[in-house]
Amino acid sequence: MGLTEPQYSMAFTLASTYTVDVVTSAGSWTATVAAGTYYMDGSGTSDFLADLETALDANDPTGTWTVSLGTLPTGLGGTVILSRAAGGNTITSMTMKTGDGRTIGNDDDVISSGDFSVNTSSLSTWRSPYQARYIWRPRELLTRSEHKPRRTVARSRSVTGRVLIDGYASGWHDRPILIEPVQGALVYQWMADSSTFVAVISGMTAGDTNIALEAFWLDLMAQSGATGSPPTVREAVDYTDTTTYTNIWLSDGDWMENMQTALEEISPNPVLYRVNFQAQTVVS
Questions:
Q1: What is the DSSP letter of 132?
Q2: Where on the phi/psi map is residue 86: left (φ > 0), alpha (ψ -120 to 50), or beta?
Q3: What average pLDDT does range 3-12 have in this prediction?
Q4: Are 76 and 63 in contact (CB under 8 A)?
Q5: Exposed/middle/buried for 198, CB within 10 Å: 0-12, 13-18, 19+?
Q6: pTM assigned to the model
């Protein structure tokens, strides 16, 4: 496997309908995404952003929408991009009535007209100030991510004393993952809040509530608690191709109890970390 920059996207559950109220210069309308389990990876499969695009398209009387995940290898990578073409009017506001703006990388639940970089009758474009929630992009090379098959052997002993192998079982493969060096602002929230640590990451905005591994880990714990088991995580080894991914579990016991067990500081200035996950590949 060549060295690439990966993306990790966890399954998350919408307990209720995600509702967006849209007000334009010509009137208002509402788009909804049904409750269910989604990913925020831009893959098109169980993809929240794809369903949001469909909902906006279906309910807008005049415009055509595109909803995508930024792929730039900077702080802008992983942001949500909303684009509306040929609307014939301008957008006054978009309000997340149920479900929060943080899900799509906004700093509150309202996108106002001034938040759009372009807002005309022919085109409206908005890019989230923060990264989308439920994904982690280390913005560094994936040094190792490999299958190590684990099999359980069932044996029995016959009345003559002969040992028989009754079968094999394998529900997962061990998958050690190593990523280095990762900037501190992409690991810990307090560093993501600090302009000092953020300054070394092109395009990143201080205060991003989704970008750090710590935010991803907290959501992973929350989703695990809600369902009683760790959520499936999609590992796309190349963030520019999120349609190609491997389903994994980041469910190592030590990591689940203490995020720091996966981290090793390898440089104090700038602050850099080695991230070493003990993951498992989900085997169907």
A1: P
A2: left
A3: 90
A4: no
A5: buried
A6: 0.87
